[in-house]
């Protein structure tokens, strides 16, 4: 059985898990401003848990293409008060940050997971996580910086380069003393990749999984889905569900999503149709007559 050691929790990954996104930002690409105050973000945490989120991911900095970096004080002021509350909701809480200083404070406050789009390359970040006894980490691949990463990204072999980068980051953390069971890898859809790169990576998810760590994917509402369907960002729910299920079919174990309720339903159907013992094959939950 695959599991992810994540702070207070050991997350059973024998079935795919849903990580609900809480962007405490004014400028995130799909929901900027919607949860930008502490009160709105806390309400969103509660809503996503009620909708069935297995984990929460709190972010205080947009990393959308072209985004400007925010100051540390600002990012900290956005994230920490929400984290304090989210930690009482009974699910693992992840903090999405590139900054060692915020990672340190978040871990001190009790965060279960650090999700870093920069794969712990900030000075001292790797050592900080390695000495922590239990926190989980998500190491994501990003080519370049958010401000410029979508300007003609180039790879000779995107799958091998991403796989080698992630394997190298995981090996480096393990060399610092981190247990493998605390590490999850993410190809980083939308981070320095063309549509063709993303499709190649999606098709190669089994290759990434073969590195020996669970794979997390973040397809939710991303612009490749907009280009495939011709839909603006707020009309990408069906596209996001299709991509999420396709990723699970390819072996992804964690889905980072904005639309938790819909993703949970889609996964329930997928599991039931797979005859998954974790699903409800014989006694489907009762519902009011259609
Ligand atoms: N995508 C975003 C942010 N963090 N973390 C991981 N591990 N994987 C992802 O694909 C990923 C991520 C971007 O999405 P979002 O948080 O909705 O937007 P923004 O960065 O504009 O706040």
Structure at a glance:
With 290 residues, the protein is an alpha/beta fold. The chain contains 10 helices and 10 strands. It has helices at residues 38-50, 72-86, 100-109, 125-131, 158-175, 195-203, 205-209, 223-229, 237-249, 260-274; strands at 3-6, 9-12, 17-23, 55-59, 93-96, 113-116, 136-140, 183-186, 216-217, 254-257.
Give a verbal description of the structure.
With 290 residues, the protein is α/β, with parallel strands linked by helices. The protein has a single domain (3-286), classed as Dihydropteroate synthase-like (TIM Barrel, Alpha-Beta Barrel). Helix content is 39%, strand content 15%. The protein is built from ten helices and ten strands. Strand 5, helix 3 (100-109) and strand 6 (113-116) form a beta-alpha-beta unit. The chain is globular and about 40 Å long. It starts with a strand and ends in a 16-residue tail after the last helix. The site of 6-hydroxymethylpterin-diphosphate has 21 residues, from strand 3 and strand 7.
Identify the CATH class: Alpha Beta
Number of distinct helices: 10
The helix/strand class is alpha/beta
CATH fold naming:
TIM Barrel
Task: Annotate the secondary structure layout.
Blueprint: E1 3-6, E2 9-12, E3 17-23, H1 38-50, E4 55-59, H2 72-86, E5 93-96, H3 100-109, E6 113-116, H4 125-131, E7 136-140, H5 158-175, E8 183-186, H6 195-203, H7 205-209, E9 216-217, H8 223-229, H9 237-249, E10 254-257, H10 260-274
Bound molecules: 6-hydroxymethylpterin-diphosphate.
6-hydroxymethylpterin-diphosphate (HH2) binds next to strand 3 and strand 7.
């Amino acid at each position: 059985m695959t599991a992810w050691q994540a702070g207070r929790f050991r997350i059973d990954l024998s079935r795919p898990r849903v990580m609900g996104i809480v962007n405490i930002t004014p400028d995130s690409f799909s929901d900027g401003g919607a949860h930008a105050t502490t009160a709105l973000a806390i309400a969103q945490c509660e809503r996503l848990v009620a909708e069935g989120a297995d984990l929460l991911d709190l972010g205080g900095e947009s990393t959308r293409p072209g985004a400007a970096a925010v100051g540390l004080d600002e990012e900290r002021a956005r994230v920490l008060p929400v984290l304090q509350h989210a930690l009482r909701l009974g699910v693992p809480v992840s903090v999405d940050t590139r900054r060692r200083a915020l990672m340190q404070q978040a871990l001190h406050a009790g965060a279960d997971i650090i999700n870093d789009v920069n794969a712990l390359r900030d000075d001292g970040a790797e050592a900080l996580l390695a000495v922590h006894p239990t926190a989980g980490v998500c190491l994501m691949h990003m080519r370049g910086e958010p401000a410029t990463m979508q300007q003609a990204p180039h790879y000779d072999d995107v799958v091998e380069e991403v796989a080698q980068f992630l394997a190298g980051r995981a090996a480096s953390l393990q060399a610092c003393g981190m247990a493998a069971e605390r590490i999850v890898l993410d190809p980083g859809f939308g981070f320095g990749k063309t549509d063709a790169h993303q499709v190649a990576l999606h098709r190669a998810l089994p290759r990434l999984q073969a590195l020996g760590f669970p794979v997390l994917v973040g397809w939710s509402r991303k612009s490749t889905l907009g280009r495939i369907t011709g839909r603006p960002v707020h009309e990408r729910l069906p596209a996001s569900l299709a991509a999420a299920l396709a990723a699970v079919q390819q072996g992804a174990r964690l889905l980072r999503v904005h639309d938790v309720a819909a993703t949970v339903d889609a996964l329930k159907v997928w599991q039931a149709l797979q005859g998954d013992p974790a699903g409800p094959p014989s006694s489907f939950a009762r519902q009011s007559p259609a």
